[in-house]
Structures are given as C-alpha cells and as structure tokens.
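Data deposition worksheet. Section B asks for the primary sequence of the deposited chain exactly as it was used as input, without tags or linkers unless they were present during the calculation. Section C holds the resulting structure in token form. Section D is free text for depositor observations; keep each observation to a single sentence. Incomplete worksheets are returned to the depositor.
Section A, Depositor: J.P.
Section B:
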Amino acid sequence: MPGERYWEIDLARGIAVVTMILFHSAFDLDFFGVLPLDVSGGFLRMLAYLTASTFIFLVGLSFTISYARAARRLDRRGLALKYVRRGLTIFGYGLVITAVTWLFLPNVYIVFGILHFIGLAILLAPLFARLDTEKLLIASIACLIAGYAASLVTGPWPLLWLGIRPESFSSLDYVPLLPWFGLVLVGMAVGRLFYPDGKRSCPLTVAEPAFARPLEFLGRHSLFIYFLHQPAVLLLIAVLAPGAVTGFW
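Section C:
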C-alpha cells in the first residue's frame, strides 16, 4: 500500500519523542535554576545525543521508503519538487525557532538547530537516493571524517551550517550538516537493506505490541509535539515553581 506505515519506525520515533521531552524538561529545570542538573555531561548529555541520533537516523530511513514510493507515481520533476517543498518547509519551521529564541534568549539563540538540519538534509538526500548501500556507507564515513576536521577549526558565521564555528559561538541547539548528514546516509543504507522499494523486506517475527500504540501516536506527530512540548514544559514549571520563569526575565 502506498501510504502504509510501519509500526516499528513510528515506535522508534515515539520513544525519541519521550526522551526529547525528558531531556528538555531537565534542561529547563536547570536553566531556570529550579534544580541543579548536569545537562552538559553524564547521563543527560548521552540521552540528548541518543535522542538526536535516533531522529536523524530515522530521517534517512523514512526518506528511503518515501522516495521509493513517490518515484513510482511521480515524474522526475514532480519528485524533485516534492522534496524541495518538504525540505524548505521544515527549514522554514527552523527559522521560526530561530526567531523565537532570538527574541527571548538572544545570547544563545538557535542559529542552525535540528529542524534547520533536517530541512537541509531532505533537500540533499535525493542526490544520494540512487547510491547502493556500500556507497552510502562510504559517503557516511566521509561525512563523519569531514565533521571531525571541521570541529578542529574556527571560522566565520556563514559556515555554521557546515560545522565550522566562530570561537565565541554559543547556542541552545546546534546540528551542523557535518558530521550529522553521515547518520542520515546510514539511515538511507539501512532503508535500502530492510525496506527495498519502500516495502518491508521480511515480516517481523513479533506482532505489534499493544503498549506501543501510544508511542506510535507520538511518533506520527513528532513535529507537532516538538513545537508544543517546550511551551507546555515552561508553563508547568511556572505553575510548580512560581517566579522561576518570570524571575528569569
């Protein structure tokens, strides 16, 4: 079926939504001085990296499935326009986050966060869609190496998207193209292996568990929840710890 969703992918994304909410809640509690939590190291930092890695890997995996299905019903122009529109739309959502954080937190506002990255990744992914699994993995390793090299140098603000930062740069969220696009390519390689032509290559040995359905719901609406959860967390902190948020301003 062209629109068939795979519960295991929605489940993985739903789990990432939960861990995202947990980390951002911990971050906000520390940021506003409610609880002294170490969000820059230890378990919480590992949780943040695991969450971002899951989302980004699933961008590549889901793209492979989507692209294979779209290629069966669209010509080359229609296929290109589909992902240009989708990429620019998500990048535009990232610009909304930039504007909001610049307005309220100008010292650490988000210049190139995860939504900016995902938008750009979707624009670039069609260029790699016809590569086989081996070439995708080679390209992913090249991105990881290039990302490491970029992290060793400093540069002007216009290169932020690439992974080269000014020395004084600070941001609440920073997900540059390098090395993170390498993880998108890994997701695309896995998609080619296990979901060739947009179809699951082999049936799962376990049926969809009932407990997974709420998480699958979160996974299907992850973008909406991304925008909604921070205001909800801040509202909850304002109710439970009066003066924490208002005192900050």
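Section D:
The mean pLDDT is 92.
The chain has nine helices and no strands.
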